[in-house]
Known about the structure:
The chain folds into 3 domains: 5-81, no CATH class; 104-306, Rossmann fold (3-Layer(aba) Sandwich), CATH 3.40.50; 317-390, Winged helix-like DNA-binding domain superfamily/Winged helix DNA-binding domain (Arc Repressor Mutant, subunit A, Orthogonal Bundle). Helix content is 48%, strand content 11%. It has helices at 5-15, 21-30, 32-44, 46-52, 59-74, 76-79, 83-89, 125-131, 143-158, 171-181, 203-212, 227-238, 253-263, 281-288, 298-313, 338-346, 354-361, 365-377; strands at residues 93-96, 116-120, 133-136, 163-165, 186-189, 214-217, 242-245, 268-270, 293-294, 325-326, 329-330, 381-384, 387-390. The longest helix is centred in the N-terminal third of the chain and has 16 residues, at 59-74. The protein is globular and about 60 Å long.
Amino acid sequence: MIISEEAALVAWSGMAAPADEAAGGLVSSIGAGEALEWVRWGARSLPAAAASLHGRCTREVAEAAVLAHERWERRLAVADEPHWRRATAVGARVVTRGAPGWPSALGSLGASEPFALYVRGPADLDAAWSQGVAIVGARSSTAYGSHMAAELASGIAATGRAVLSGGAYGIDAAAHRSALAANGLTIAVMAGGVDRLYPAGNDALLRAAMDDGAVVSEVPPGFAPHRSRFLTRNRLIAATSATIVVEAALRSGALSTARHAAGLLRPIGAVPGPATSPSSAGCHALVRDGVAVLVTRVEDVLELIESATEWAERDVGEVEPLGECGGGRFALPSFDFPADRAVYDVTSSRAITVERVAERAGLAWIDATAAAGRLEMRGLIERSKGGWKRTP
């Protein structure tokens, strides 16, 4: 049975797990409808279905699809469920990948870009993601952390930018609540279906967000907010124009969001706290390791966004080499390879190993090594006993 591409994307949103790169690669290569039919064909004869991919996608995509086929086949019944009708029943609209209103910023996720978004609320998602700011942090926030989240969210909302977060207790709730108090837009990205506002204690807050903003999920209504979905959901939040971590322990979901943002080359800010506070240890680590910029007021956040925007829009050919003065300021170096920029961004005056460089830059080890070598030849970074560090 042939269905529309839009309907096939909705089917994949239920059949594939969030961030399933094998599914994303197959759909991007042959289309959502044909990919769905390929799974059904494979259920009858996987060898024949595998052979049919020759010349239609890369070998890597084909091999990943064959390995993933069993888990997709087990969920074919989920693909046939009436996700669209269930969304309509709870007052949600469905926006599929590439359709009008789709957040173009999510395209930077590559093979893990969602297939569809289920949305309760009128917000312009494309504008929200491209111009908005994510504020994330601890669920068990301190009074200081909640205050800082509120101050930053209020200032960001006053500029007309959306405030995005995960709808949880603590820092998330403080950011959403403050944006609403400033008559701004706020977007809450759920780990489960939008029919189940989670956590239940924030039900009134999330419903208020729907008035002008939105509650959004990449999984259909009826899907529970399992633990793994919180972690994969974080990549969607990280795709905004910048991510600000207000409070975070050394092991926290907020740091997961920051890592996703670093991999996407999005600017990251971290709010400092008391040196002895475990709730701020993660923020301090981000700043110490050069992953985040220290922010203490909304002006710092806006400067972070504007600097990143200027870099993205600037003609690289006009950027002066590092060390040459231009108008009394040192210009940023130009980069011929995206990997070089990624490696340079994650290094600092503190030496780190190439393995850590690769992890933070979101690169394979061999690509990170090659980029580090090119940067060393240009005098931008240097070898040290602890690995690599920026040249003074």
